[in-house]
Design brief:
The chain is 46% helix and 23% strand. It is of the alpha+beta class and 103 residues long. This is Enhancer of rudimentary homolog.
Length: 103
């Protein structure tokens, strides 16, 4: 459980920057998925159930101007930065674990 800060800049203007913090890296990765799901709901307001695959999620991530994480490192008492590729790898592992648990 490492405190994680998610930094998001969806558009080119710096005013679009936001951040969220999470108790763990996995919670943060779920947060990224939720951001995409909210984006899909805005695009498809009349669709009761929305599905997507990981390639669509990764494309969305790649279209963001900036997406990065700061993950707390207990040993050094600092936050280490991670980029989009690291985030996509963590999401892939998370979703694969969730799929393995599904009935």
């Amino acid at each position: 459980m490492s405190h994680t800060i998610l930094l998001v800049q969806p558009g080119p203007k710096p005013e679009t920057r936001t951040y969220s913090d999470y108790e763990s890296v996995n919670e943060c990765m779920e947060g990224v998925c939720k951001i995409y799901e909210e984006h899909l709901k805005k695009l498809n307001p009349n669709t009761p159930s929305i599905t997507y695959d990981i390639s669509q999620l990764f494309y969305f991530i790649d279209q963001l101007t900036d997406l990065s994480c700061l993950v707390y490192q207990k040993i050094s008492n600092t936050y280490a930065p991670y980029n989009k590729d690291w985030i996509k790898e963590k999401i892939y592992v998370l979703l694969r674990r969730q799929a393995a648990k599904a009935p």
